[in-house]
Amino acid sequence: MRVAVVTESFLPQVNGVTNTVRKVVDHLRRTGHQALIIAPGPGPADYEGVPVVRVRSVGMPGYRSFPIGLPDASVERALADFDPDVVHLASPIALGAVGLRAARRLGLPTVAIYQTDIAGFARHYKIRADLLTSAWVGRLHRRVDRTLVPSRTSYAQLEAMGVENLHLWRRGVSLDLFGPGRRSEELHHAWAPEGETVVGYVGRLAPEKQVRRLAEVARLPGVKVVVVGDGPDRAALQRMIPDAVFTGMLGGEELATAFATLDLFVHPGESETFCQTVQEAQASGVPVVAVAAGGPLDLVDHGRTGMLYDPRAAGALTQVVATLVDDLDLRQTMAARALTEVAQRTWTTVVDQLVDVHYPAVLRRPRASSAAA
C-alpha cells in the first residue's frame, strides 16, 4: 500500500503529532508499505529512507519556532507524483486543509487523525478565535472520508460539530523503551539529595500544557519538582519554580530513564485530546496524577490506576499530590495496575489497525494483495 502522510508538524519539531507520524511511518516501512511525508519546513528531506516534501511555512504567533504550513502547489504535485492509495492527514488544520483539497481534486481517499484541540490551543495563546477555529475544524473533518479520534471526549467534541464516520483510534506506547527497569537511583539522588519525593512533568513547556500549576506542588514539604522538556514557557517557569530541576529536552534512553526515576508523574494540561505522556509514565511504572478532562479520562481509572483532579477546584492538585506523597503503598499499587493495563497497548497493534481496518475502509480502488508499489 502507498500512503501519503500530510502532517501539521514533523522533525525537527518534537511533539505528539510528530511522534505519532514517526511511529506510523516506521511501521509502514517495516511491513513493506511505501510512504511519503509532506510537512511544513524547514527540516530534513528524508526520514529513515522515506522522502519528506517540505512546503512553505510561517512561524505561529506567540511561538515563532513552530512552523505553520501555507498553501503551496507542491502539495498537489507531490500527491499526484506519488499516486497514493490513501492520504493520511495528521492533525489537519492548515497544511492538512491544503492536503485535503488536493486529495479531493485528485480523487484520493482520506483518513484524518484528530489530535489537537485547536480551540483550546488558541485560547492559551490568547488568540480570540474559539468559534472560528471550531467551525474550521468541523468543516475539515466533515469533508474527509473517515476521522479517527483518540478519546471519548474527542469523539463527543467532533460529533457535536456534525462530523460523521468517527472511529476511536488510540495511541501505542514503546514498551521496548519505557519500563520500570530504567529507574536510576543515582539520578534520583542527584535530583533529590535530601531524599525528597520526586514529582515530575514531561512534555513541551508551552502555555496550553499549564505547567505553571506545578508551582503549588513545589511548595509541598518533602517534594522536589522535576520538569523534563523545553519550549517557549521555560524561562518563565524557571522564574516561577526556582527550586525545580529543569532537564531540558530528553529523548531515547535518557527520556525513559527520567520517566522511570520519577516517584510521581503529573500532567496538568486541560487541552489534551489523548496525553501520550500519561501512557509513557504508566509503562515506566510511575503513578500518575492528571487533570479530569480530555484524553486522561480514558487513560486513568481514578483511584485504581492513577488519580484525577478537578482543575476548577482550588488546591485540588496539591491535595491529590500530597495524598500520594504520603502513601507509598497506594502509589505502588496504582502504578502496578496501570502497568498491567498499558502492556497491551503496543504501537504494532495500533498501526496495524490503520492498515487492516481504517485505510481499507476508504479505498476507492482495489487494494493490492501485498504492499506493492
UniProtKB/TrEMBL annotation:
What's the short name of a Pfam family annotated to this entry?
Glyco_transf_4
Q: List each copy of the Glycosyl transferase family domain by range.
A: 192-338
Q: Please provide the record's keywords in A-Z order.
A: Glycosyltransferase, Transferase
| Protein name, per record | Phosphatidylinositol alpha 1,6-mannosyltransferase
Q: Which organism is it from?
A: Nocardioides ginsengisegetis
Q: Which CDD domains match?
A: GT4-like (cd03814)
EC number of the protein: 2.4.1.-
Gene3D superfamilies (alphabetical): Glycogen Phosphorylase B (3.40.50.2000)
UniProt-listed GO biological process terms? carbohydrate derivative biosynthetic process
